């Protein structure tokens, strides 16, 4: 069990189903993470699709003239917008506005279901 005496909790990745976000202050660690992800995916009979990958760099561009296997993965700038699990992500996203949109869509879906001709059991399930 972690306690405050253990120091701050460091987050280095988020994983949800088949979506993964890896965080690191160093380019070399991103390269190591990609290598590890490819190794584990390969053991499961899966592979990474570079066209569905990106590096979102907040501070540093991709190092010049490196042959680190990251050549096919684009680097997004600090102002680039991308989606993770359907929600816009970047340093400039207004989270209050984003949550308002999520709430509105959830309420609209709930209204559509509850006002439909489905049976109560179908509406709940």
From TrEMBL:
Source organism superkingdom: Eukaryota
UniProt-listed InterPro entries: DNA/RNA_pol_sf, Rev_trsase/Diguanyl_cyclase
Protein name (record): Uncharacterized protein
